[in-house]
Structure formats: C-alpha cells, structure tokens
Amino acid sequence: MTILQLGDIAPPFETLTDAGHLVKLSDYRGQRVVLYFYPKDDTSGCTTQACGFRDAYPLISEKNAVVLGVSPDGVASHRKFKSKYNLPFTLLVDEEHRIAEMYGVWAEKKLYGRRYMGVIRSHFIIDAEGRIADVQYKISPTKSVDKALKSLAE
Question: pTM score, two decimals?
C-alpha cells in the first residue's frame, strides 16, 4: 500500500467530475487542494464530512484552496448527493479506485467480521506547487474538516 509523506509530489490523476467533465489534478496548480476520500455518497459519515467541508468552504476559499471529494460512486450518484446537500465543491468519480490506490486509501476493511476492499476515509492537503502539505489517513468525518482548516492556516 502506498503511504504518502509530507513533501511528496501528489500523484497526478485524470477523472470525471460530478458534472461529467474530465478534470486533472494539474488543473488546480497554483491553488491549494483539499483532496478528501470518502466511502460512499449519502451515507451518514460521508454526509457529515461533506457538509462540514460545505460549511467551511468560505474559509477554505479565503486560503486560496479548493475542495475535491473522491469516492467510488459514479457521476449520477455524485450529482444527486451534491444537489441534495448543496455542496459548493467538486466531487470526483473513482469507480475503479485508481486514485484511491495511488493515494494509499484503497484497503481491506472489516465490518461485522466480514472483510472487504473499500475506501479508507482520509484527506490530503496539496500545496500550490503540487506537493503533499498534510496527510490524514483514517480520519473521522468530524475531525477531517477541523484538521484541514488547521493545516490551511499554517
């Protein structure tokens, strides 16, 4: 499993957005990016995290940063989730979990004794030059937003 460290170059990727447009991480060069990974649209923890980033978005924008949420859900699911909760940021499609694998967040999980592969809730702050400025693996939905804001303030 890939474990990214502070100062590493953020792994580049290209994928679809919730609007069905193709986007690359390099499109955000010159801005800071809060790249967060979550397991599934419209589930309790994922909604808590997304709404936290929604509510903090004005503060994040003031820090020359954008938020990008990544999950294995498709365009239609992302569009519905974004609309339902009025999310002001872009959701990225990772149906084949390629991005999650590059960032080391696609791993074995266990629930009720059953093992399966899934997204480990995590976030990364990527600086304006494309380097990892903060790494938070296995973060709780509520702490993710607070830690991202703290990192952006530094």
Answer: 0.95
